[in-house]
Amino acid sequence: MTSLVIAEHDNASIRGATLNTVTAAAHCGGDVHVLVAGSGAGAAAAAAAQIAGVTKVLHADNECLAHGLAENMTAQILAVAANYSHILFPATASGKNVAPRLAAKLDVGQISDVTKVESADTFERPIYAGNAVATVQSLDATKVLTVRTTGFDPAAATGGSAAVETIAAVQASAQSTYLGAEIAKNDRPELTAAKVIVAGGRALGSAEKFNEFMVPLADKLGAALGASRAAVDAGYAPNDWQVGQTGKIVAPQLYIACGISGAIQHLAGMKDSKVIVAINKDAEAPIFSVADYGLEADLFVAVPELLAAL
Amino acid sequence: MKVLVAVKRVVDYNVKVRVKSDGTGVDTANVKMSMNPFDEIAIEEAVRLREKGVVTEVVAVSCGVVQCQETLRTAMAIGADRAILVETLEELQPLAVAKLLKALVDKEQPGLVILGKQAIDDDCNQTGQMLAALADMPQGTFASKVEIVDGKATITREVDGGSESVSLTLPAVITSDLRLNEPRYVTLPNIMKAKKKQLDIFTPEALGVNVSPRIKTLKVVEPPKRSAGIKVPDVATLVAKLKTEAKVI
User: Fold this and answer.
1) Which of A73, A86, A183, A236 is deepest in the core (most CB within 10 A)?
2) A residues 101-140 near B, CB within 8 Å?
3) pLDDT value at position A185?
4) In sequence order, which residues have a C-beta less than 8 Å from that of residue A297 and are 6 or more positions away?
């Protein structure tokens, strides 16, 4: 029994989500290998070799793997899939894009958002926006999983000394071409890994107010910025800030929800936070049912007060 | 060019589901059912493509119990031209649905297949990708914008750090994300017209597909409950609690 973790990386280094996925792989039992498929990804492969608990790194390098296109990634993983009982991806946008395509090519089911590994074939996962937790058993010989990173501690990034094996890279699919990306660059911690998150809802009323009230608070706390779907739909915050059932799933030490009503779908994304603070002037807002500390107040008054008091 | 759109009948998004005390699943008896919200967005996108003259026919497909016909009538009220139900009482998982859709893709030969990114009941986010694999088509998942020009689809995708664009040859599979469009309200005249539109029914057997589940559900339980919180009277109290009690700042 051997697991293959499909690394999330930027060719220069390994992304944190990979470390949580390595832990999940270790829980499945057996050895853990990592596949680094990219372009000019030697540094990422070398970094993967240092992850504690990893015994082998497969490195496939080709221009067509530079941006994680599903068609090319799937073909690349298929080339080695027969050697593995478990193939794990972090439940990130890339992982969720590729894992099911791979599973179908292997004619096996896929298990999404695994939060706990009970045994080599039995896993826990949330359903109905996290309002229920299912324990499921795979009946297939190969298990293809996406792993909810908040469910597993990250493996140590150093301490391992795996061998790096170069494998032949696939050719580019003629069906799919990468055109470009608009990825925000900033110094904030990544939402899914942040210890503190400050999140704003539709009550902020405009992108300007969102920036004016949320950003200084996030800066003061060294926090990541999140938003409700309503705020993103209204254009007050970019889509990658959305926390919720179909957005980012987060579990920080501290989550401060400002002007967020707390719809079921939003709670799905943040109810595993260690401490939840809610600031909302509506006493009946559902967010108060999950908040450890609820402040019934107008956020336009309370947030600057909070900033001053910190 | 024909476009196939898959729609799923799910527990309505406003319903707070209850887990059955015997651990076998979620209580769906007498609960309001609706079209999966992402699938409404998929139908809307297909109808807009027809209104722009990019596609000629929108075919809605659903798989499951006979009541899925209601979901298909809603799809036709939004604007789908006709519908297909693959009727079965079996529990359908994404791989099985993808195989059923592949059989229909072989029959109908669409230039595009659009699905919702994920169903809000099982939260799998798999069927579109699986269909693309089985049909050997490229995939544009989590789409926030779709443009079809000269036999190619340019898709803008919502990804973890922002968005990215890909160009796919047709036929292709697209899955819709929240901001792809805002579905139109269904009007009464369109609901009436939808009752008369063509709805064909098949079975998995007739399509030659084995839909046996590959994943067995052993039990379903409630998530751990959070202990009740408190209301604080002012910011000063909040900060004090966060420092001394919760110790998170």
Assistant:
1) A73
2) 101-105, 107-113, 122, 126-140
3) 81
4) A279, A280, A281, B234, B235
- A61, two tokens: 């390098």
User: For B138, which of A126, A176, A233 is closest by C-beta distance?
Assistant: A176
CB contact, 8 Å: A273 with chain B?
no
Tokens 């059955």 belong to which residue?
A: B20
pLDDT tens per residue, range A121-155: 999 999 999 999 999 999 999 999 999 999 999 99
Residue B144 in 3-state DSSP? Answer: strand
Residues of B in contact with A178 (CB under 8 A): 164-166
The answer to whether B124 contacts chain A (CB < 8 Å) is yes
In the sheet that holds A122-127, the strands lie side by side as A116-119, A122-127, A132-138, B215-221
Of B94, B158, B172, which is closest to A239 when you measure between CB atoms?
Answer: B158
- Dump strand ranges (E) for B138-229: 139-149, 152-159, 162-169, 172-176, 199-202, 215-221
Probe site for chain B from A98, A117, A127 (most B CB atoms < 10 A): A127
What's the angle, vertex CA A167, arms to CA A166 and CA A170, rounded to 5? Answer: 135
